[in-house]
Amino acid sequence: MSRDEVRTSKADELRVVNRPIGRHDAAEKLLGHTRYAADLDLPGMVHARLVRSQIPSGRLLARDVSDAVKVPGVVGVLLGEDVPNNEVWVDVPGQTTEVRALKASMQILATDRVRFHGEPIALILAETEDALADAEEAVRVEYEELPVVADPAEALADGAPLVHEQGNLLAEWAIDRGDVDAAFEAADVVVEGEYRTQLIDHAYLEPEAGVAWLDENGVIVIRAATQVIEHFRDVARILGVPASRVRVIAPYVGGGFGGKEDMTVEPYLALAVHRLGRPAKMVWTRQESLLARAKRHPVSMRYRTAARADGMLLGHDVDITSDSGAYAYLSALVLLYSAVHAGGPYRVPTMRLRSRTAFTNNPPTSAMRGFGGMQVVFGYESQMDRLARALGMDPGELRKRNAIARGDELPVGQRIETSVLLSETIDAVTGRAGPKPSPRRPGTAVGRGIASNLQSYGRLVWLKDSASAWMGFETDGSLQVRIGVPDIGGGQASSLVQIAAEALGASLDDISLHFGDSALTPLAGTTTATRQLYMSGNAVLSAATQLRDRMAEEVAAETGQPAASLDFVDGMVKGLDQSVSLAEAVAICIRRAAPVAVLATFYGPRGTEVDRQLDSGRVFPDFTFGTHLVDVEVDLATGRIRLLRYVASHDVGRAINPQSVEGQIRGAVAMGVGQALMEEVVVERGVNLVGGFFQYLIPTAADLPPIECVVLESGEGMGPFGARGIGEPPIGPCAAAVASAVEDAVGVRPTSLPITPERVLACIDRAARG
Amino acid sequence: MTTHASAAVSVSLTVNGREVERTRPAQLTLLRWLREAGFVETRLGCGEGVCGACTVLVDGRAVASCLALAVQVDGSEIRTAAGLSQDDGSMGGLQRAFLDHGAVQCGFCTSGMLVTAAELVESGEPLDRDRVVAALEGNLCRCTGYDGIVDAILAAAGAEAPSP
């Protein structure tokens, strides 16, 4: 097998980038200075709250707000009829040629039909928070209950009640690569399995919140916890005003993970301001957030996998069904990610894949870290383990044999263009972990599991992504950077400061970054899809490079030195003969009528929109690869699992801030372990039973061992300085690695998440029965 | 219909060394009382006493301020996360350790984490990883995986911690 050529450029020449630097935003957060979305109050402000459906499926017979508006302090109660454009349409891509132009709709406030428990029906506006609570109880909604569609199988059965009139099937994707049937006939071994992942909540610590007001120019300004300031356009459509009349500001966000990618409070705040002309504030309770904000898709998967006796994969036959919940949101795209990632980081010569996502009366599902690419890891990595068992091969060795390499194609037809250090990550985690520990106590078993994955970074190529950044020097040599990046906690802003400092030789303390404002900072796109470092990092690097080159020309002309000999470092423009400070360089430019500021735009790769039948070549800019290893101790009497050791390795291309990279990996592992072991939004016939944080357990410090990171740097990514994205990728392998370790310990593999003690005991029972 | 016409009461607290007196409805939680008084670094994460983002020190003891009523702690000395800074406004030892160890990402849990950590560190008891982990069980973080936080607390306490 030809070994992928690896460029392991050392980063010695870098001065600021590639160093573990304490983030400037972290300092402000520690001092208590940071003002999140809910931390702002304005004079004359009204408070806003939604009245939500108490049933999962029904017709609205009456919405009586006559008592509510009489509650002292209540300023108004808005219904769907009060919303200028109450219907919001979502494009469902790729379903066009054979079906029809498919669009899915939802209402800002439901007028005649509710489809999930928690759907917004009315918007209360009041002088005080206490009046909101009284008014909420005074709104009377009469329902005619309709049948509940509780899962996709029910939804797609003949004669199923319709969640939406157009039908319960929202979207499908298919892959037919090579002759799958021939591959299975030629196979030495075929393994088969069914796998289920569960409904998951983002559970960031900051509930959805925002404040909005009307500015002096008639622009509605919304300062809200969001990953997407570009929603100003959606808000404008809802209000029926020009897009230029709405501005969204994202302050530092207290966690996003995809849950603040779709709009939450924004349209309601805008409606309040539009209606009253007064500032308005809306803060969702934790209970509301758990009840009604879109969540991670539960997915069921069936995999059949054919391989040769030497372990080489011959083909996958895959069937995937996901639960879109009551509305479309991003479900079609999440499913597309599942389809494209379904073969994993391996050479898969043939694949047949069928997938679909269906409407149900469950909570809506949409974006969450890993975005469809993570659920399928539980499928394909379980298959790799089954294969290793069937062939008596080491699971790491099997994966290394099949590892995809530069120049290979994914089943969808996309060619891998950068080097793949998958085998190196496998060696890294096994090397770090050493031999598997023995059980330390009677009545326990110890198991080890590994799992690898690939995850795209950057948006789908037909979305024509771009990011813009402005930067300019002040006369004292300090630097301003303006860029419309929402910072959701991953160090999005501080990494950009590091990049600017690196390229221009300005000190970190001399750089101010203004971010996340749809009117005053150049638009840089969404903080989603592991794209900000890649896209905005490239935009900032491009702006800084252009500015440096232009200033170097002027300094060169002024000082009589070649521009190429000038180095921007330590606040100076250093030449062989003569050096000037950045402030002097700025003065030179001003004297010579040359710019000291620049606006740059970075464009992601372009491609054509995919169709339902996926054979379109490039879908994503690039991928990040990695492997996790976990040792677990299983209590054979109780089924309780304890993680003994966790090692994660990813090739991040180049770590712009190694501290932030390790933070992303550790945080993703904690979230992934939560999905593996404990988290589930429990819904019974459409009724969301999670009433609060006390019923939705996420990992505490006590649930996790130290998470050991082995960060590899190939220098091969498409981001600045060869960086790859790392926000989403490390959540992928967790559940599969834990399942693998449990199987190693007890002999039977858990195939449904979360892997609760009950499910572990069931595995132990099955192992005992043989 | 519930009524919120409960009597307003005067509550006086010393917050981060500053005496604050406010007359507010008796059922106001300590969290809301503090936030209304401008101490918004104390965060509302769940309102159920589960997440720990609202933790403050009441006479030196860590308390979930979303569960306590302000009237219950009338006359107490309160410290919020901002009260851990030095007198000149620069970072105190715990805050500096959090920065150096990458213990902060989105930062929404940070105030509560710092306060819980302060109680632990100031207790002077000998700390190891297990003790710190046990103390943090009432403080949720969704971003960091906790390692940076645990290491920062150990470092601030002068206990053995991996260098950042």
Walk me through the structure.
The complex is a heterodimer of chains A (770) and B (164). A seven-stranded mixed β-sheet of chain A has the order 3-7-1-14-11-12-13, sandwiched between helices. A five-stranded mixed β-sheet of chain A has the order 9-17-16-15-10, sandwiched between helices. The radius of gyration of chain A is 27 Å and the shape is globular. Chain A contains 17 helices and 30 strands. In chain A, helix 9 (375-391) packs parallel to helix 16 and helix 15 (658-677) crosses helix 16. With 770 residues, chain A is α+β, with helices and mostly antiparallel strands. In chain A, 26% of the residues lie in helices and 25% in strands. Chain B is built from five helices and five strands. The radius of gyration of chain B is 16 Å and the shape is globular. In chain B, 55% of the residues are buried. The mean pLDDT of chain B is 94. Chains A and B meet through helix 1, helix 2 and helix 15 of A and helix 2, helix 3, helix 4 and helix 5 of B.
List the helices and strands and how they pair.
The complex is a heterodimer of chains A (770) and B (164).
Chain A: H1 24-31, E1 46-52, E2 58-64, E3 74-78, E4 87-91, E5 103-107, E6 113-114, E7 120-126, H2 129-138, E8 140-145, H3 152-156, E9 169-177, H4 180-186, E10 189-196, E11 209-214, E12 220-224, H5 232-239, E13 246-249, H6 266-276, E14 280-283, H7 286-292, E15 299-307, E16 313-325, H8 331-341, E17 350-359, H9 375-391, H10 395-402, H11 422-433, E18 444-457, E19 466-473, E20 479-483, H12 492-504, E21 511-515, H13 532-559, E22 567-569, E23 572-574, E24 580-581, H14 582-591, E25 597-603, E26 622-635, E27 641-651, H15 658-677, E28 683-684, E29 687-688, E30 707-712, H16 734-746, H17 757-769
Parallel strand pairs in A: 1-14, 12-13, 16-17, 20-21, 27-30
Antiparallel strand pairs in A: 1-7, 2-6, 2-8, 3-7, 4-5, 9-17, 10-15, 11-12, 11-14, 15-16, 18-26, 19-20, 19-25, 22-23, 23-24, 26-27, 28-29
Helix pairs in contact in A: 5-6, 9-16, 12-13, 13-14, 15-16
Chain B: E1 8-15, E2 18-25, H1 30-36, E3 55-58, E4 61-64, E5 77-79, H2 93-100, H3 110-122, H4 129-135, H5 147-156
Parallel strand pairs in B: 1-5
Antiparallel strand pairs in B: 1-2, 3-4, 3-5
Helix pairs in contact in B: 2-5
